[in-house]
Amino acid sequence: MIGTAHVLARRAKNEEIANKIEQMIQQAEQRTQDIMGHLASWVISPGNMDGGMSTIAEKSMGCIFKGGSTIINQVVDYGEWPTEKGLILQDGPGYDADSMAGLAASGSQIMFFSTGRGTPAGFPAVPVIKVASNSRIYEAMKGDMDVNAGSLIEGKSLEEMREEMIDQMIRVINGEKTKAETNEMDVFTFMTVNPPF
Q1: Looking at beta carbons, which pairs linking 41-45 to residues 24 or more positions away fall under 8 Å?
Q2: Which of 38, 60, 78, 166 has the fewest CB atoms within 10 Å, counting from its CB?
Q3: Which of 91, 122, 151 marks a domain boundary?
Q4: Are residues 120 and 65 in the same domain?
Q5: Residues 24 and 97 in one domain
Q6: What tens-digit pLDDT sequence spans the chain (197 residues)?
Q7: Is the separation of the CB atoms in 3 and 41 below 8 Å?
Q8: Is 72 helix (H, G, I), strand (E, B) or coil?
Q9: Are 98 and 193 in the same domain?
Q10: Is 68 exposed, middle or buried (0-12, 13-18, 19+ CB in 10 A)?
Q11: What ranges in the chain are assigned the alpha helix state H?
């Protein structure tokens, strides 16, 4: 979320949460600079560059956009159980497997995982519903993706997409396997107590 503290802090439910958001992102930026030097704000993955991004702030804007626009009710540490409901931010790594482990450790019982490049990874203890962010990836990876969010660009309304995703979630809760489960694409890694992220 580097580069987005000013946007997210405005959505905090109170000043304490706003301060935690700003501190979390400032610390992440400092860690990145400590590792990468003065070019840290330009460091993004080759896949992100192929997708048209040029800075980590651009990637971060896409990241926070996926979280919607509701009030942020809490900020928790990696693996910490939330005490609030609604939108909660977790201070943790962006790497797929590590972030899923943190969410599972925090009590998640099901996950929606959006992907622009088509990562098929799931998690061994929690069903992961894979959401393709564009139709090209969905069509190329139908055997790995559960939901095509690219259909929003093609005319599906947000309400229709929401209903489709809720229906998918209910089916998974009732025992339907996700594509990641069916394909046995489970990955498991985690960060240490004092992570370098």
Answers
A1: 41/2, 41/3
A2: 38
A3: 91
A4: no
A5: no
A6: 777 788 888 999 999 999 999 998 888 888 777 877 776 656 666 666 676 776 776 677 667 677 778 899 999 999 999 999 999 999 988 778 888 999 999 999 999 998 877 888 899 899 999 999 899 999 999 999 999 999 999 999 999 999 999 999 999 999 999 999 999 887 766 665 555 44
A7: yes
A8: strand
A9: yes
A10: exposed
A11: 5-9, 15-36, 46-50, 56-65, 96-105, 135-140, 158-173, 179-182
Residues 98, 139 within the same domain = yes
CA dist 169 and 183 (Å) reads: 18
Burial grade of 174 (CB within 10 A; 0-12, 13-18, 19 or more): exposed
Angstrom distance (rounded) from CA 44 to CA 47: 8
Judge if 105 and 193 occupy the same domain: yes
The per-residue pLDDT for 197 is 47
Q: What is the pLDDT of residue 40?
A: 62
Are 143 and 81 within one domain? no
Last residue of a domain, one of 44, 64, 91: 91
Determine the Cα–Cα distance for residues 6 and 18; give it in Å rounded to an integer.
9
The length of the chain in residues reads: 197
Instruction: Give the chain's domain count.
Output: 2
Task: Give the HSE-up count for residue 185: Cα atoms under 13 Å, Cβ half-sphere.
Answer: 20
pTM: predicted TM-score of the whole model, two decimal places: 0.78
